[in-house]
Amino acid sequence: MSDTANTAFEQLCQFSRQTATLQSIEELLGWDERTMLPPSGGEFRAEQITCLSGLVHRRRTDPQVGRWLEELVDSPLAADPHSDTGATIRQIKRGYEKHIKLPQSLVEELARTAVLGQQAWTEARKNDNFASFQPLLERTYELKRRQAEAIGYATNPYDALLDDYEPDAKTADVQEVLTGLREQLAPFVAAIADSGRQANVEILRRNYPIDVQEAFGKQVAAAIGFDFQRGRLDVTHHPFCAGLGPDDCRITTRYDERNFPSAFFGILHEAGHGLYEQGLRKDQFGLPPGCYVSLGIHESQSRMWENAVGRSHAFWQYVFPQARKSFPGALPDVTLDEFYFAINDVRPSLIRVEADEATYNLHIVIRFELEQALLAGDLAVADLPGAWNDKYRDYLGIEPPHDADGVLQDIHWSAGLVGYFPTYSLGNLYAAQFFAQADLDLGDLDGQLARGEFAPLREWLCQKIHRQGECYTPSELVQRITGRPLSHEPLMDYLRGKLEPLYGI
Ligand code: ZN
């Protein structure tokens, strides 16, 4: 192996690690903005973040990166695309080639429109006035079309945008799996609604003191393996997880005294993201083998701990006695089975973030179909609210009385995040397929969960997914772990297995 290739590789890695370190500072500023920042600090914070993201973009498109890559792409270091060195070269090249295609002027215009778009959206949502947001949304889609053209695509411009969040995913494949899911899910949800059975959700709306919720949530997060020596839990309006570095992962939640599931499952969800971050390889920080592979796979980790584990009967066999002790004012007359039914309540609702795990995916399908139509120009932004309401009626059997509870409910499009929504459903699909495989591989998974033994599942995820970094693409990873491509069937099997007995259907 030539010395020049080795030297180029070392220099490229050192440079990339420094870029990642700068990015981690940007992330830290973002975490601080959403948890701690005094109200008037916003303007200067935006300046700090813009300054850092400019530095990061310049480094990502530095011509020196191109020269190092030229030395490396045909070297033996790149021969095995799944090795640490091969994956590093492949992924850095991929990012570099993508970033240099975007003209600086377009990058800046996208950033500026995202800031203005979010401001306009906040006002529009508050006043239930879609028309006031319409011009910025039109501008956003115009810019996203230009972005797709600049990056390039084979057949569908949506591919170019989806790729930012789910690398190598193709719209047609996602479409196929989500359509398969929708066709089975819509009648299934309707059958649940027609079953005449309803969980007693009042038991979840009793008095759950916030300090106890916090202590209880932390205790359960630690039990599943979230390491509080290498992470924190704080309060925010819109919960998120920020992996700031190898030993510093921040998760957040929000508390409501009269709503137990909101914070509890929120903490489990973010702790699931956190376990992925804490499971990444430290020695590869800032390099592809030490990075998460896609948003969909990230979401599969959070959804698995939140739902497949956290809403299972086995898990509550272990946790419920502790919950009763912690919340003597709320749960003394409640049985485990009653509680289990309540946390698995399914009913069509208007708001995506409050949706149960069955109807949730229909909310995503609606957004996925609409954003494709908007990008392709098949749907005018002016006609979006009507199209939104039609789809809610068709797939969920309900219609938003106001745009604020309808088309204006999500921040994503206003922030220029087009192609992001499907990763939420991909997360649910991957989670179900991985969980079914873990069940096969681990033998007595249910028994382990019921005994509070979470290490075997966590270790399985760590070895199969976390420590693989970006050495495989998401679709290669699914194929390797489960022996088949992603399908809607494991998720439908999982939902049927859980909900049919509860609803007697
Ligand atoms: Zn998530």
Structural summary, described in words:
- The chain is mainly alpha-helical.
- The chain folds into 2 domains: 3-152, no CATH class; 171-503, Orthogonal Bundle (Neurolysin, domain 3), CATH 1.10.1370.
- 63% of the residues lie in helices and 3% in strands.
- The chain has 20 helices and 3 strands.
- α1 crosses α3, α5 packs antiparallel against α6 (130-151) and α10 crosses α11 (295-309).
- The longest helix is centred in the N-terminal third of the chain and has 33 residues, at 3-35.
- The termini are far apart.
- 38% of the residues are buried.
- The chain binds zinc ion.
Average pLDDT level: 96
- How much helix, percentage-wise, in residues? 55-70%
The largest sheet is:
3 strands, mixed
Stretches where pLDDT is under 50 for at least 5 consecutive residues are none
Radius of gyration (CA) equals: 23 Å
CA-CA gap between termini = 64 Å
The top level CATH class name of the largest domain: Mainly Alpha
- Helix and strand content put the structural class at mainly alpha
Report the CATH architecture of the largest domain. Answer: Orthogonal Bundle
Number of domains: 2
Number of helices: 20
Sequence of secondary-structure elements: HHHHHHHHHEEEHHHHHHHHHHH
The beta-strand count equals 3
Globally, the shape reads globular
Hey, roughly how much beta strand do the residues contain?
under 5%
Ligands present: zinc ion
Describe the strand arrangement of the main beta sheet, using strand numbers: 1-3-2
CATH fold-level topology of the largest domain: Neurolysin, domain 3
